[in-house]
Amino acid sequence: MNEAFFDKKDYKSLDRVDGRLKVTGAARYSAEYQLSGLVYAVLVESKIAKGTIKSIDSKAAERAPGVLAVISHVNAIKVPGYQTSNQHPSEPPVNGQPLRAFYDNNVYYNGQPVAVVVASTLEKAQYGASLVKIQYEKEQHKTDFDANMESAVLPAQAKKNPKSPVADYSRGDKNAFANAPVKIDAEYVLPTEVHNPMELQAITAHWEAEDKLTVYDKVQGTQPTQKQFAKEWNLPPENVKVIATFVGGAFGNGLHNWPHETAAIIAAKQVKKPVKLVLTREQMFTMVGYRPYTWQKIQMGATKDGKLVAINHESVGQTSSYEEFTESTLQQTRMMYASPNINTRYRILKLDVSTPIWMRGPGEATGAFALESAMDEMAFSLNIDPIEFRLMNYTDSDPDKQLPWSTKYLKECYDAGKEKIGWEKRKMQPGSVRSGEWLVGYGMGTGTFGANRGVAAVRAELDAEGNLLMQCAITDIGPGTGTAMVQIASNTTGIATDKITFQLGNSQFPKAGNQGGSSTVNSVGPAVQAACNALKEQLKTMIASNGGSQAAFASAKTDDILFVNGQIQIAGSDSAKVDIGTLFKQNNIRKIETTQESKPDENRNKYSMYAFSMHFAEVHVHSLTGQIRVKKVVCCADAGTIISPKTAANQMIGGATGGIGMALMESAIIDHRFGRYVTKDFAEYHVPVHADVPHVEVFFVNKPDTLADPVGSKGLGEIAIIGVAPAIANAIFNATGKRIRELPITPDKLI
Amino acid sequence: MGDNHNPDQPENESFAESRRNFLKNSSLLTAIAVTPGVVAKAAENDLGEKIASAFEKVPLKMEINGVKQQLSVEPRVTLLDLLREQLNLTGTKKGCDYGQCGACTVHVNGQRVLSCLSLAVMHEGQKITTIEGLAKGDQLHPMQEAFIKHDGFQCGYCTPGQIMSAIACIREGHAENEADIREFMSGNICRCGAYPNIVDAITEVKNNGQKL
Fold it and tell me: Which residues form the 2Fe-2S ferredoxin-type domain (chain B) (predicted)?
């Protein structure tokens, strides 16, 4: 079995295709386009959490040197899409209405953008923004989750549709927990976490004509954004161009369009110049979403010999007063283990805060913290090894959808990870293993996420020198999309990777949705493959029409047509070698091209498609100070075919790093007296730094799932983090005997 | 924009405005001595702003990536914003503006400095090296090569700062072992989490023993 795994260190893999641009500083992100006449915008935020704006005194700002405009609801031009009844043009991820920049004088949360100052330089805009004085009519605000949890409600989408994924769910006997021989009943809390990509959210908005808008915008989808702004400004989509060639991380916060984007577009329209708007780090906490504060309760019942008989899983997630954000916190509880009886109940709590948005692993990562912690608690109660306990409740088909898995190689992940972490050193009794003053613990957690293939199209063009150019509107927020696509094209055609270019991040390229939900390689990859195959078909026909020794091409399988050392051949045969330059000359053409679309097929209805992961952590806890050090992390993923091992391993390492943050340090805290974050920068909101992250060993099963998609990939981005936080929490329990159910696990909770 | 303010609000002459008006007037007075006609007229329109603005700038000489620069900057401009917004050297990144993330790391006279915490005018006569100044033509710096080889990044946004810090880390003698590297690189945050690969890249460059 071990040959199915590979270690990134001894596996040949393509270097990141945009690596050179990134290490030389030549890669241009959204705030780095130096347009002629560019001016700068700085936002002014609300200082109250709820109420209305009584007045805005912008005179001093307007008179400040270099200030071109101070724009607020008082004087903002009308956004056409704002006026259409109560339907906001931006499609919310959920029910409700996204915040409309400068629409009226309502304040919905502290830190809401309420005005924007535009000036000739950044410094002048910053100074101008400091001069804007706002008077408010305050109202009583609610930002305290714990104090208001009783007000949680069923999401509107679940009220409308009982089959909604966030509707109440029940399988088997509703009351099975009550009669279970062994029970766990515990509550778990995950605080608000903020994506905080290193690149600050930025947009450069440019009205190239009265009805023609170009934005350089930090988003995860160029075409979804194009669609939003086209609706918002009542323009045909082709009049809106969205460029996001490089995105400096996003982790989900680019999956929604936010008020600051519209603010910049309004400003650009009003001052008739291209406007650049970059959020401050503080504004990253209030303007571009976050992982919502979530309370969970799990009741788990099992037989004494380790068979699960019931899981009841409840969750309440925070949302804003104006949008109903929901996520799949409870999904894995329904499908991960073979419990005959399951109840799940999902509620949302509306507070006077900004709207959350999916953050890496989204709800599944939150849910996995509770579920995988509870599994560990139950295993301990039963005195069964946590891996054994999971194997005893392993499912060979999806008990939720009642369909066979397309593929599931989680057992292989358990086996490999167990060996690599040194699981045999783990003792059942907490606190049994010591290293000097340090208590040593081992823990594990499982992750799973749907293999959600979407629709995508790719344009491919092959020239007489054998260069292959491909284009797709998809973005790359960091995983290495271009690299994976170049590798897929090379695998499909035989063309050397250095002769292949993949262009992305432009709404004018062929169709793609958001880069999100681990769906890029399995959506765009098949389109790359289809485009390459279509080019090969064209070549085949062209070559075969020459007759003679080349007639064999007519009957050759497309898969067998390959470039070998720059010449076209039928693989595995001693057919004629055809030089592409000569071929194109004979046919009097300079290039061939095609655009191919790929979309999910009927297998989606016949199989349940999920990627799986397994995370193991070795954690040392100082016996006196409670200091926690993650000493080793081993991650194993069943993500189908691994196209680009180097970048894939890096994604897994990144997920483990994110999981360390989630488990040990990340927490955004509101001072409820003011409804305002007190953690608003990296001094207060801690994320993992170099010293917090050990070497992470990554293994892949690397078995294709061709039922999921023709490339065989199931997606990686989410399962890289889902299950990491509970693995660490479980290791801390194993080290100390302390079960911490509220993240982050900081030393004060251990001493 | 003057006609857009709320007429119900009382006039509020701020200190800043007074200072500004004083400056405009005094610069006008100074200028009148030289070319009264032109400047007096200029002060009546947009040019007044430009002239006043010129008086708020100070001359600054720097060598950036080997090129001597004669600049004129406002004293409040940070080195980071000078590089990014005025000199189009956008390789140096803004990640927090508070010196907490390291994305803006550059070398000043060979030492790492957080350019967001540093006013441009503090660097009169100094040599600044940014990420754009590391490669010699097509020949990448060994640290840049190592970052590519070990895949020491994902989104690439923290990368210039990581690389500038990594080079300094070795020069400082703070790359003797992995624990050292982790400690002395901890001022450079990578939210994608490529830390182990960055440590591998630095270790390799250190072990190759080249003078950096």
Answer: 58-134
Interchain proximity A127–B16, CB inside 8 Å: yes
Interface of B with A in 53-92 (CB under 8 A): 53, 56, 74, 76-77, 81, 84-85, 88-92
> Which residues contact residue A135 at a Cβ distance below 8 angstroms, ignoring those fewer than 6 apart?
A53, A54, A55, A56, A57
Question: Prior bond to A744 cis, omega within 30?
Answer: yes
Do residues B33 and B39 lie in contact, with contact meaning Cβ atoms separated by under 8 Å? Answer: no
Q: So what's the ipTM on this one?
A: 0.96
Chain mean position to CA A601: 24
CATH at B203: 1.10.150.120
Residue B6 inside a domain? The answer is: no
User: Low-confidence residues of chain A, pLDDT below 70?
Assistant: 1-11, 83-94
Kindly report the number of other CB atoms within 10 A of residue A140's CB atom. Answer: 9
For residue range A32-79, what is the model confidence (pLDDT) as tens digits?
999 999 999 999 999 999 999 999 999 999 999 999 999 999 999 999
Tokens 């161009």, located at residue = A241
Assess if residue B5 is contained within a domain: no
Is A646 an interface residue toward B (CB < 8 Å)?
yes
Contact between A489 and A679 (Cβ < 8 Å): no
With an 8 Å Cβ cutoff, is B105 touching chain A? no
Q: Please tell me which residue of chain A has the smallest CA distance to B154.
A: A478
**Which residue shows structure tokens 């993500």?**
A639
Find, in chain B, the residue whose alpha carbon is nearest to that of A29. Answer: B157
Contacts of A182 (CB under 8 A, 6+ apart): A301, A302, A303, A304, A378, A381, A382
**Which one-letter DSSP state was computed for residue B162?**
H
CA dihedral (B106, B112, B118, B121) in degrees, to 10, reads: -80
Report d(CA A313, CA A416) in Å as an integer: 30
- Per CB-CB distance under 8 Å, the chain A contacts of B131 are 23-25
What would the pLDDT profile of A145-154 be if each residue is shown by its tens digit? 999 999 999 9
Domains contained in chain B, number? 3
Tell me, letter by letter, the H, E, C secondary structure of A59-70: HHHHHCCCEEEE
Question: Is-catalytic flag, A718?
Answer: yes
């050179």: which residue's tokens? A20
